[in-house]
Amino acid sequence: MRLGSVLSEALRNIGSGVSRAFAMFLAVLLSGTLLGGYEAMTVIDLESQAVQRINAYADVNAIVGGTVDGTACDRLSDAGDGMTGTLAGAMRAGEQVVPFATPGKDISSYDVTPGMIRLIAGNAKADVSGVWVPRDVAKDFGLAVGSALRTREGTTRVAGVFDWPNDGRDTRFAYAFIVPVSASASTFNECWVKRWPADGQMENLLYATLVAGSGSSNAGVTQVNKGFDAHYDARASYVNRSTRWMPWVGLAIGVLVGVFGVRRRRLEYAGALHSGQSKGAQLLGIGVETGVWAGLATFASCALLLAYAVRMSRSDWVAVLAAAVRTPLAVFAGVMVASLLVGLLIRESQLFRFFKKR
Protein backbone atom coordinates (compact mmCIF):
# COMPACT_ATOMS: atom_id res chain seq x y z
CA MET A 1 0.00 0.00 0.00
CA ARG A 2 1.47 3.32 -1.06
CA LEU A 3 2.24 6.08 1.43
CA GLY A 4 -0.12 8.52 -0.28
CA SER A 5 -2.96 6.01 -0.04
CA VAL A 6 -2.35 5.45 3.67
CA LEU A 7 -2.31 9.16 4.38
CA SER A 8 -5.42 9.92 2.33
CA GLU A 9 -7.33 7.08 4.00
CA ALA A 10 -6.33 8.33 7.45
CA LEU A 11 -7.51 11.84 6.62
CA ARG A 12 -10.80 10.48 5.21
CA ASN A 13 -11.39 8.54 8.41
CA ILE A 14 -10.88 11.74 10.40
CA GLY A 15 -13.07 13.84 8.12
CA SER A 16 -15.92 11.32 7.96
CA GLY A 17 -16.03 10.78 11.70
CA VAL A 18 -15.00 7.13 11.60
CA SER A 19 -12.14 7.74 14.02
CA ARG A 20 -14.28 9.92 16.36
CA ALA A 21 -11.46 12.43 16.11
CA PHE A 22 -13.35 15.33 17.70
CA ALA A 23 -14.32 13.36 20.80
CA MET A 24 -10.78 12.05 21.20
CA PHE A 25 -9.44 15.57 20.60
CA LEU A 26 -11.60 16.88 23.47
CA ALA A 27 -10.49 14.07 25.79
CA VAL A 28 -6.81 14.88 25.25
CA LEU A 29 -7.38 18.65 25.36
CA LEU A 30 -9.34 18.60 28.61
CA SER A 31 -7.07 16.15 30.41
CA GLY A 32 -3.88 17.95 29.37
CA THR A 33 -5.22 21.43 30.10
CA LEU A 34 -6.88 20.66 33.43
CA LEU A 35 -4.00 18.63 34.84
CA GLY A 36 -1.37 20.99 33.42
CA GLY A 37 -3.36 23.98 34.66
CA TYR A 38 -3.45 22.54 38.18
CA GLU A 39 0.32 22.15 38.04
CA ALA A 40 0.69 25.73 36.80
CA MET A 41 -1.54 27.03 39.62
CA THR A 42 0.55 25.19 42.20
CA VAL A 43 3.85 26.51 40.84
CA ILE A 44 2.47 30.06 40.64
CA ASP A 45 1.31 29.80 44.25
CA LEU A 46 4.81 28.71 45.33
CA GLU A 47 6.27 31.51 43.26
CA SER A 48 3.93 34.02 44.95
CA GLN A 49 5.02 32.80 48.37
CA ALA A 50 8.65 33.34 47.43
CA VAL A 51 7.96 36.82 46.02
CA GLN A 52 6.06 37.75 49.17
CA ARG A 53 8.97 36.65 51.34
CA ILE A 54 11.48 38.57 49.22
CA ASN A 55 9.39 41.75 49.29
CA ALA A 56 8.91 41.47 53.04
CA TYR A 57 12.66 41.00 53.68
CA ALA A 58 11.99 37.58 55.18
CA ASP A 59 15.22 36.41 53.54
CA VAL A 60 17.29 39.08 55.33
CA ASN A 61 19.35 37.93 58.30
CA ALA A 62 21.18 40.16 60.77
CA ILE A 63 23.89 39.62 63.33
CA VAL A 64 23.22 41.55 66.52
CA GLY A 65 24.77 41.88 69.95
CA GLY A 66 28.34 42.42 68.76
CA THR A 67 30.76 44.88 67.18
CA VAL A 68 30.69 44.76 63.40
CA ASP A 69 33.37 45.75 60.90
CA GLY A 70 31.45 47.82 58.32
CA THR A 71 33.88 47.14 55.48
CA ALA A 72 33.74 43.38 56.05
CA CYS A 73 29.94 43.56 56.19
CA ASP A 74 29.62 45.42 52.88
CA ARG A 75 31.95 42.92 51.25
CA LEU A 76 29.46 40.13 51.91
CA SER A 77 27.76 41.35 48.75
CA ASP A 78 30.71 39.86 46.87
CA ALA A 79 30.26 36.49 48.55
CA GLY A 80 27.21 35.55 46.49
CA ASP A 81 29.08 33.13 44.22
CA GLY A 82 27.66 34.93 41.22
CA MET A 83 24.10 34.69 42.54
CA THR A 84 21.76 37.60 42.06
CA GLY A 85 20.10 39.46 44.93
CA THR A 86 22.98 39.33 47.41
CA LEU A 87 23.20 42.63 49.31
CA ALA A 88 24.71 43.45 52.69
CA GLY A 89 25.24 46.48 54.90
CA ALA A 90 25.94 47.55 58.46
CA MET A 91 24.08 49.96 60.75
CA ARG A 92 24.26 51.66 64.12
CA ALA A 93 22.03 54.07 66.00
CA GLY A 94 22.77 57.72 65.27
CA GLU A 95 21.89 60.97 66.99
CA GLN A 96 18.33 62.20 67.33
CA VAL A 97 17.46 64.65 64.54
CA VAL A 98 15.24 67.70 65.10
CA PRO A 99 13.81 69.12 61.83
CA PHE A 100 13.17 72.86 61.73
CA ALA A 101 9.61 72.08 60.63
CA THR A 102 8.92 70.37 63.99
CA PRO A 103 11.26 71.97 66.54
CA GLY A 104 9.66 70.14 69.45
CA LYS A 105 9.89 66.71 67.93
CA ASP A 106 13.02 64.68 67.42
CA ILE A 107 13.33 61.72 65.05
CA SER A 108 15.67 58.77 65.27
CA SER A 109 18.50 58.43 62.80
CA TYR A 110 20.74 55.53 61.87
CA ASP A 111 24.23 55.60 60.43
CA VAL A 112 24.55 52.99 57.73
CA THR A 113 27.15 51.83 55.26
CA PRO A 114 26.60 52.25 51.49
CA GLY A 115 25.73 48.56 51.33
CA MET A 116 22.78 49.08 53.68
CA ILE A 117 21.43 51.84 51.43
CA ARG A 118 21.58 49.47 48.48
CA LEU A 119 19.86 46.79 50.57
CA ILE A 120 16.89 48.91 51.66
CA ALA A 121 16.59 50.52 48.22
CA GLY A 122 16.89 47.20 46.39
CA ASN A 123 19.23 48.83 43.91
CA ALA A 124 22.94 48.21 43.55
CA LYS A 125 23.40 51.77 42.22
CA ALA A 126 21.51 53.60 44.97
CA ASP A 127 22.63 57.19 45.62
CA VAL A 128 24.60 57.53 48.88
CA SER A 129 25.31 61.26 48.62
CA GLY A 130 22.51 62.22 51.01
CA VAL A 131 20.05 60.93 53.59
CA TRP A 132 17.33 58.43 52.81
CA VAL A 133 13.87 58.67 54.33
CA PRO A 134 10.96 56.20 54.47
CA ARG A 135 7.75 56.98 52.63
CA ASP A 136 5.88 58.09 55.79
CA VAL A 137 8.56 60.62 56.76
CA ALA A 138 8.66 61.96 53.21
CA LYS A 139 4.89 62.40 53.24
CA ASP A 140 4.77 64.13 56.64
CA PHE A 141 7.58 66.58 55.85
CA GLY A 142 6.84 67.07 52.15
CA LEU A 143 10.17 65.61 51.07
CA ALA A 144 11.14 64.16 47.71
CA VAL A 145 14.36 63.07 46.02
CA GLY A 146 16.57 66.15 45.81
CA SER A 147 14.77 68.08 48.57
CA ALA A 148 16.79 70.00 51.14
CA LEU A 149 16.21 68.75 54.66
CA ARG A 150 16.83 71.52 57.22
CA THR A 151 17.47 70.35 60.76
CA ARG A 152 18.93 71.79 63.91
CA GLU A 153 22.16 69.96 63.06
CA GLY A 154 22.36 71.49 59.57
CA THR A 155 20.97 71.13 56.05
CA THR A 156 21.34 68.00 53.97
CA ARG A 157 19.98 66.65 50.71
CA VAL A 158 17.44 63.85 50.42
CA ALA A 159 19.05 61.25 48.17
CA GLY A 160 16.16 58.81 48.13
CA VAL A 161 12.80 57.69 49.47
CA PHE A 162 12.12 54.05 50.26
CA ASP A 163 9.15 51.92 51.28
CA TRP A 164 9.20 50.21 54.66
CA PRO A 165 5.74 48.70 55.21
CA ASN A 166 4.46 47.23 58.45
CA ASP A 167 4.58 43.58 57.37
CA GLY A 168 6.44 42.11 60.33
CA ARG A 169 9.90 43.43 59.52
CA ASP A 170 12.11 45.42 61.91
CA THR A 171 10.25 48.70 62.51
CA ARG A 172 13.24 50.92 63.30
CA PHE A 173 13.51 52.12 59.70
CA ALA A 174 9.77 52.80 59.44
CA TYR A 175 10.10 56.40 60.72
CA ALA A 176 13.71 57.52 60.83
CA PHE A 177 16.46 59.25 58.88
CA ILE A 178 18.95 56.87 57.27
CA VAL A 179 22.36 58.53 57.01
CA PRO A 180 25.05 56.95 54.79
CA VAL A 181 28.55 56.98 56.25
CA SER A 182 31.83 55.43 55.23
CA ALA A 183 32.03 51.69 55.89
CA SER A 184 35.42 52.25 57.54
CA ALA A 185 34.10 54.98 59.84
CA SER A 186 34.39 53.38 63.26
CA THR A 187 32.38 50.21 63.93
CA PHE A 188 28.73 49.26 63.76
CA ASN A 189 26.25 47.33 65.86
CA GLU A 190 24.56 45.15 63.26
CA CYS A 191 25.23 43.62 59.86
CA TRP A 192 22.35 42.69 57.56
CA VAL A 193 22.58 40.43 54.55
CA LYS A 194 19.92 39.75 51.91
CA ARG A 195 20.35 36.76 49.67
CA TRP A 196 18.05 34.73 47.46
CA PRO A 197 17.82 31.85 47.53
CA ALA A 198 18.82 31.78 51.18
CA ASP A 199 21.25 29.18 52.50
CA GLY A 200 23.12 28.35 55.68
CA GLN A 201 26.43 29.74 54.44
CA MET A 202 25.54 33.37 55.10
CA GLU A 203 25.11 32.78 58.82
CA ASN A 204 28.74 31.76 59.10
CA LEU A 205 29.82 34.73 57.00
CA LEU A 206 27.88 37.09 59.27
CA TYR A 207 29.95 35.94 62.24
CA ALA A 208 33.06 36.67 60.19
CA THR A 209 32.13 40.37 60.15
CA LEU A 210 32.59 40.70 63.93
CA VAL A 211 35.64 42.58 65.15
CA ALA A 212 38.04 40.17 66.81
CA GLY A 213 38.57 40.72 70.54
CA SER A 214 35.64 43.15 70.83
CA GLY A 215 33.69 41.12 73.36
CA SER A 216 31.11 39.86 70.88
CA SER A 217 30.57 36.51 72.55
CA ASN A 218 26.85 37.18 72.92
CA ALA A 219 26.32 37.96 69.24
CA GLY A 220 23.69 36.00 67.39
CA VAL A 221 21.94 35.82 64.02
CA THR A 222 18.26 36.67 63.70
CA GLN A 223 15.69 37.42 61.01
CA VAL A 224 14.90 41.02 60.14
CA ASN A 225 11.29 39.92 59.58
CA LYS A 226 10.25 37.36 62.18
CA GLY A 227 6.73 37.03 60.84
CA PHE A 228 7.82 34.31 58.41
CA ASP A 229 9.05 30.77 58.88
CA ALA A 230 12.80 30.80 59.39
CA HIS A 231 13.13 27.26 58.00
CA TYR A 232 11.47 27.99 54.67
CA ASP A 233 13.18 26.23 51.75
CA ALA A 234 11.97 27.36 48.32
CA ARG A 235 13.67 24.49 46.47
CA ALA A 236 12.27 21.84 48.81
CA SER A 237 8.77 23.33 48.49
CA TYR A 238 9.00 23.06 44.72
CA VAL A 239 10.53 19.59 44.60
CA ASN A 240 8.00 18.19 47.12
CA ARG A 241 4.88 19.88 45.72
CA SER A 242 1.81 17.64 45.50
CA THR A 243 1.44 18.12 41.73
CA ARG A 244 4.86 16.77 40.83
CA TRP A 245 3.14 13.51 39.84
CA MET A 246 0.85 15.16 37.28
CA PRO A 247 2.87 14.01 34.23
CA TRP A 248 2.48 10.40 35.37
CA VAL A 249 -1.26 10.90 35.82
CA GLY A 250 -1.37 12.44 32.35
CA LEU A 251 0.60 9.52 30.93
CA ALA A 252 -1.89 7.04 32.45
CA ILE A 253 -4.85 8.96 31.02
CA GLY A 254 -3.14 9.10 27.64
CA VAL A 255 -2.65 5.34 27.66
CA LEU A 256 -6.34 4.80 28.46
CA VAL A 257 -7.43 7.15 25.67
CA GLY A 258 -5.07 5.47 23.19
CA VAL A 259 -6.20 1.97 24.12
CA PHE A 260 -9.86 2.95 23.86
CA GLY A 261 -9.38 4.67 20.51
CA VAL A 262 -7.91 1.57 18.87
CA ARG A 263 -9.82 -1.22 20.65
CA ARG A 264 -13.22 0.15 19.66
CA ARG A 265 -12.13 -0.25 15.99
CA ARG A 266 -10.39 -3.60 16.31
CA LEU A 267 -12.96 -5.36 14.12
CA GLU A 268 -12.29 -2.79 11.38
CA TYR A 269 -8.53 -3.25 11.68
CA ALA A 270 -8.73 -7.06 11.69
CA GLY A 271 -10.99 -6.90 8.62
CA ALA A 272 -8.49 -4.64 6.83
CA LEU A 273 -5.73 -7.17 7.47
CA HIS A 274 -7.97 -9.92 6.10
CA SER A 275 -8.51 -7.81 2.99
CA GLY A 276 -4.78 -7.64 2.35
CA GLN A 277 -3.61 -4.52 4.15
CA SER A 278 -0.08 -4.90 5.49
CA LYS A 279 0.62 -4.49 9.19
CA GLY A 280 3.09 -1.69 8.55
CA ALA A 281 0.55 0.28 6.51
CA GLN A 282 -2.06 -0.21 9.21
CA LEU A 283 0.23 0.99 11.98
CA LEU A 284 1.17 4.00 9.88
CA GLY A 285 -2.49 4.84 9.42
CA ILE A 286 -3.17 4.49 13.14
CA GLY A 287 -0.17 6.69 13.90
CA VAL A 288 -1.28 9.39 11.43
CA GLU A 289 -4.86 9.48 12.69
CA THR A 290 -3.84 9.51 16.32
CA GLY A 291 -1.08 12.03 15.72
CA VAL A 292 -3.50 14.47 14.07
CA TRP A 293 -6.15 14.67 16.80
CA ALA A 294 -3.79 14.10 19.72
CA GLY A 295 -1.18 16.49 18.33
CA LEU A 296 -3.68 19.29 17.71
CA ALA A 297 -5.15 18.82 21.18
CA THR A 298 -1.71 18.92 22.78
CA PHE A 299 -0.77 22.05 20.83
CA ALA A 300 -3.99 23.76 21.92
CA SER A 301 -3.45 22.70 25.53
CA CYS A 302 0.11 24.06 25.57
CA ALA A 303 -1.10 27.32 24.01
CA LEU A 304 -3.71 27.75 26.76
CA LEU A 305 -1.12 27.00 29.43
CA LEU A 306 1.25 29.52 27.84
CA ALA A 307 -1.40 32.23 28.00
CA TYR A 308 -2.17 31.37 31.62
CA ALA A 309 1.50 31.37 32.67
CA VAL A 310 2.23 34.71 30.99
CA ARG A 311 -0.89 36.27 32.50
CA MET A 312 -0.64 34.95 36.07
CA SER A 313 3.06 34.45 36.81
CA ARG A 314 4.60 37.13 39.02
CA SER A 315 8.22 36.60 38.07
CA ASP A 316 9.21 33.71 35.79
CA TRP A 317 6.48 32.53 33.41
CA VAL A 318 8.97 30.34 31.54
CA ALA A 319 9.55 28.21 34.65
CA VAL A 320 5.79 27.92 35.21
CA LEU A 321 5.21 26.89 31.61
CA ALA A 322 8.08 24.39 31.65
CA ALA A 323 6.48 22.65 34.63
CA ALA A 324 2.92 22.79 33.28
CA VAL A 325 3.47 21.52 29.71
CA ARG A 326 5.02 18.29 30.90
CA THR A 327 1.54 16.94 31.57
CA PRO A 328 -0.07 17.50 28.13
CA LEU A 329 3.13 16.20 26.52
CA ALA A 330 2.88 13.10 28.71
CA VAL A 331 -0.76 12.65 27.67
CA PHE A 332 0.29 12.85 24.02
CA ALA A 333 3.09 10.34 24.54
CA GLY A 334 0.74 7.94 26.30
CA VAL A 335 -1.86 8.17 23.54
CA MET A 336 0.65 7.59 20.74
CA VAL A 337 2.48 4.69 22.37
CA ALA A 338 -0.69 2.94 23.54
CA SER A 339 -2.38 3.33 20.13
CA LEU A 340 0.55 1.79 18.26
CA LEU A 341 1.05 -1.02 20.77
CA VAL A 342 -2.62 -2.00 20.79
CA GLY A 343 -2.68 -1.77 16.99
CA LEU A 344 0.37 -4.02 16.84
CA LEU A 345 -1.46 -6.71 18.86
CA ILE A 346 -4.43 -6.90 16.48
CA ARG A 347 -4.14 -9.89 14.12
CA GLU A 348 -6.16 -11.15 11.18
CA SER A 349 -6.81 -14.43 13.02
CA GLN A 350 -8.87 -12.54 15.59
CA LEU A 351 -11.42 -11.36 13.02
CA PHE A 352 -14.02 -14.05 13.72
CA ARG A 353 -13.79 -13.60 17.52
CA PHE A 354 -14.12 -9.81 17.19
CA PHE A 355 -17.09 -10.31 14.86
CA LYS A 356 -18.87 -12.52 17.40
CA LYS A 357 -18.32 -9.92 20.18
CA ARG A 358 -19.40 -6.92 18.11
Concise overview:
The chain has helices spanning 3-16, 21-55, 70-74, 114-121, 135-141, 201-207, 234-239, 246-263, 266-274, 279-312, 317-324, 326-345, 351-356; strands spanning 60-64, 87-93, 109-112, 131-134, 148-151, 154-162, 177-180, 190-194, 220-223. It is built from 13 helices and 9 strands.
Oligomer: single chain
Classify the beta-strand content into a percent band.
5-15%
Q: Characterize the main sheet.
A: 6 strands, mixed
Spatial arrangement of strands, main beta sheet: 7-3-2-8-1-9
How many individual helices? 13
Q: Indicate the percent of residues in helices.
A: 40-55%
Cα gyration radius (Å): 33 Å
The helix/strand order is HHEHEEHEHEEEEHEHHHHHHH
Ends distance: 27 Å
Specify the overall morphology: elongated
User: Count the strands?
Assistant: 9
Uncertain spans: none
Please state the average pLDDT score: 84
What is the structural class?
alpha+beta
Question: Topology, please?
Answer:
Layout: H1 3-16, H2 21-55, E1 60-64, H3 70-74, E2 87-93, E3 109-112, H4 114-121, E4 131-134, H5 135-141, E5 148-151, E6 154-162, E7 177-180, E8 190-194, H6 201-207, E9 220-223, H7 234-239, H8 246-263, H9 266-274, H10 279-312, H11 317-324, H12 326-345, H13 351-356
Parallel strand pairs: 3-7, 4-6
Antiparallel strand pairs: 1-8, 1-9, 2-3, 2-8, 5-6
Question: What would you say this structure looks like, in words?
Answer:
- By secondary structure, the protein is α+β, with helices and mostly antiparallel strands.
- 49% of the residues lie in helices and 13% in strands.
- The chain has a 6-stranded mixed beta sheet. The chain has a 3-stranded mixed beta sheet with strand order 4-6-5.
- Strand 5 (148-151) and strand 6 form a beta hairpin.
- The model has no long low-confidence stretch (mean pLDDT 84).
